[in-house]
Structure prediction request, 244 residues.
Amino acid sequence: MQRSLESLVQLLESYRGRDKVIRTVCYGSQLVGGVLSRGAEVDVRSQRLGKSLLLFSAQLSHCRTVLRLFDDLSMLAYSHSYGLGNGEEDAAVRWISVLNNVADQLYYPCEHIAWAADADLIRVKSDKWWLFSTVLWGTSLLLGILRSLRVLLLLRKKLKKRHEGRNSRSQLRRQMRGELLSILSSMADLSNAIHWMPPGFLWAGHFPNWLVGLMGTTSSLIGLIQMNASSGDQSDTTQSSSPE
Prediction:
């Protein structure tokens, strides 16, 4: 119990860890609130609790938007350190990663403008800027999926080589599991990104609150699992702070 509490405190003390916890609680509240709101005709108390949880989720989402006002420089530092990915062995992984960094970098100023417009700090319509940010987020997620698929293919080829030692094969399998989790997480987020696109685009606008919460909670829990797994390797990089 004491060790679990210490781990949670340590997680909350880091910016990335706190953001992941807030994200999980945000989508979890939307999931439960959406489910309770569905039974509103039967139970008035469920309706009230459901609405409260949805409002709580919206406030946490706004909190994360405000905190992301300070992410531009850290993302820029990561993009600069990665550069054109000259350290990558595979050209496809290299260029997909570069495009992914560009999409992530452009996401932040678009979201900042949309937030400032909604807060009446600037006189522009926020709708198109929210659309731009959603498109960039979806693009980043799609590129992330393509990158993980390419990495999986390369890892499978390495795994088939007979001269690989037992420790090396175990490490390759662990990396493959990590990429599979990344794909599942990105697909869950991409389904929400499409939902927030303008009506008429695929299933845009058709997800109920509980389904948005389910997809987001799934992605958030995977993110927490990956952060916990990578904490021993001290690999909490800026890239792990994907826009949503």
